[in-house]
Design a protein that fits this description.
single chain, mainly alpha
Length: 111
């Protein structure tokens, strides 16, 4: 399965807010071919570190927000899926854990 079509959502949103269309963005980045910017935004071509900092300057975001603007594979955490819930412990496992805690408390009291 390929990459999701809706990659780098925050970056695209920020560019719209600033009134920067993709052809102009490509020009600001110094790309001679617009396809280069489309390849980056679609996830087909990875961003270079130098380009990431250049983008952050263009969209006026602090460097600390790089993980928000450039999430892994261009996909925000909430789109990648929720974290799996921890498996619930069985009554037996809970009892063993409780007995272990009680024994630890007893050892502390006698020490």
């Amino acid at each position: 399965m390929g990459k999701p079509l809706d990659t780098y959502r925050y970056l695209r949103k920020r560019l719209r807010e600033l009134g920067i269309d993709l052809p102009y963005f490509a020009e600001l980045m110094g790309f001679s071919v617009q396809q280069t910017i489309y390849d980056r935004l679609s996830g087909r071509t990875p961003w270079k570190i130098r380009e990431i900092y250049q983008v952050m300057d263009i969209i006026k975001e602090p460097y600390e927000r790089i993980p928000v603007v450039f999430p892994p594979d261009g996909v925000e955490y909430k789109q990648r899926g929720r974290p799996k819930r921890e498996r619930q412990k069985s009554p037996k496992e809970l009892l063993i854990e409780a007995l272990g805690l009680m024994e630890a408390e007893e050892r502390e009291e006698t020490a």
